[in-house]
Amino acid sequence: MALHQRAFEIAQTGENLEFEVYSLNMISVVFRKTDAIKSALDYSQKALELAETVENPSKGLKRSINVSLNGIGNIYQTLEQYDLAIEQFQKSMKLEEELGNKLGLAINYQNIGECYEALGRLEEALQSYTISLSYNEEIDSDKGRIICKNGIAHVYVHQDKTEEAQLILEEILPQAVELGDQEIIALVHITLGWTLISLKKYKAAKGHLQQGLELAQEYNLPGEIAQANTYLSDLSWKRGDYKKAMEYYKVAEHYDDEISNDRNLRYVNDMILRYEAEKKSTQIEALAKDNEAVKQRLQKSKTTFLISGIVLVFLAGLFYILYRQYQLKSDKKMLTLEQSMLRSQMNPHFLFNSLNSIKLYIINNEKKNAVHYLNKFSKLVRKILEASSLKEIPLAEELETVELYMNIENIRFSNEIDFKITIEDDIDPQLVRIPSLILQPFLENALWHGLSSKEGKKKIDLQVSRGKNGFINITITDNGVGRQAAEKIKESKVLKRKSVGIDITKERLANFSRDYQNYFNVEILDLFDQNNNPTGTKVVVHIPTV
Fold it and tell me: Which of 49, 140, 234, 304 sits in a 20 to 30 Å window from 92, CA-based?
């Protein structure tokens, strides 16, 4: 990274745009390989925008444009946005055809084949792999041939052509060993083991899977480790060894969770760090100016004033250290909660789904709607980032943030949600202070567990009223299916949404309570009609004002 950044600086100094673009692409590759997805995407897009400022690009610049497009495509593929990834790879292929770069065409077709396979479009995947193989044959690339044939075998297993898959894999395994690429050797062993399970050749399957697993563990390949354990679990199950099947399954789940969590954590941390870096840079400049002013005043002061100042600074520092020691444990817990809160507010699925929803307006040529919701989305992201650095905010700010959130989420519900905010006349929301970003998790819970499975009219009412003993009550009521029915629906789903946001919010409210005479409190009530049928859920958040 340091060398690529230095290269970029030199290219800028020498005003060499071609090398600037090349360096930006290489920086993006480093970020991608360390799972810093947001920064990787930023640098690839920056490189692409810079390259496209040239009206008649050189051959080298066209190659760099292809690297940018491939980089963006690989990032979308990593984030499982396969349609977006295919779009980038297809753009790259047009330029590769102009350049006559058969290696680039082979790589693009291979990538597109992987995306089609992940989408379950097997015939299109097989066609892409076959075209990629033909290009690899032309350029005589052993590595390319092995990767393509492994992909073709993978599709054959999905299509129940297991004997054909076995022949291909047994042919390329010795070629992979001769090539010496340990990751490819592990991949072929694992695919062959999976194929042999389908053919009920369990002993041979176990041998190949264990060889693949050993190589993956030796060379630290977490994706292959997870895959090998998944197939070994399936094999043990088919052989009746359920205890061993569970052991392999747990290991596979551990590695899958580790890969997913690490990638998401790096993504969110990357966004937070970039925002904090810009914020701290501004603060440092302001502090530097203040420090210079203080120095000038001290230089004009008398010796006694200087001594007094030093004593005061010393005492202030001493009291600050003592205070910080007292606060350290609580602050550490608060920091952990704030980071968890921000990750739950800005998870990659919400960001990408929102942008994809807005993209549909663009595709359907609904420019007015696209601009309208894009403005709301950008304003929502800005408000979440700004509020995340504040302990408390006015209730009015919080209500504006949740209204933006509901507007964005309502796109995906085809604007079927009737969301209404009601505030009693004697309450001024500008004067009521509440912890930042506490209402969105309750609204998200109402949307995805209460209303997503409901047929007919869907409503969420948010009411702000004055409670007893100096409390303000914020009530969120939905007419969803109720918690009991929602739990049954959740258990029946393969992919389950885990509601961690509410637990984090409750814990944050408990920590804020120490600054007040009364306690923050949350009540969750089930609503029923006269026949004891569920009619929705009510959440009441009690906010102390004194």
Answer: 140
Q: Which of 138, 148, 155, 210 is nearest to 184 (CA)?
A: 148
**Nearest residue to 192 (alpha-carbon basis) of 166, 212, 172:** 166
Looking at residue 450, the DSSP 8-state letter turns out to be: I
CA dist., res. 117 & res. 126, Å (int): 8
- Helical (H) or strand (E) element with 17: helix 17-33
Residue in the structure block whose two tokens are 């349609």: 83
What own/partner pairs with CB < 8 Å and gap ≥ 24 does 124-130 have?
125/151, 125/155, 126/152, 126/155, 129/155
Q: Are 228 and 212 in contact (CB under 8 A)?
A: yes
Give this prediction's pTM: 0.47
- Token pair 């330029």 in the structure block, residue: 95
Digitized pLDDT (tens) for each residue of the chain, 546 residues in all: 999 999 999 999 999 999 999 999 999 988 877 767 778 888 888 888 888 888 888 888 888 888 888 888 888 887 788 898 899 899 888 888 888 889 989 999 999 999 999 999 999 999 999 999 999 999 999 999 999 999 999 999 999 999 999 999 999 999 999 999 999 999 999 999 999 999 999 999 999 999 999 998 999 888 889 899 999 999 999 999 999 999 999 988 888 777 655 555 455 445 434 444 444 555 556 666 766 766 676 666 666 666 777 878 878 877 777 767 656 555 554 545 454 444 444 455 566 667 777 777 788 878 888 888 888 888 888 888 887 777 788 999 999 988 988 888 888 788 888 999 999 988 999 988 888 878 888 888 888 788 887 888 999 999 999 988 778 899 999 998 888 887 777 676 544 544 546 777 777 677 666 666 557 788 889 999 888 888 899 999 988 875
Q: Is-contact 188 176, C-beta < 8 A?
A: yes
CA nearest to 212, candidates 227, 197, 199: 227
526 Rama sector, left if φ>0, alpha if ψ -120 to 50, beta otherwise: beta
Rg (CA), the chain: 29
Domain architecture of the chain: domains with CATH = 301-544 (3.30.565.10)
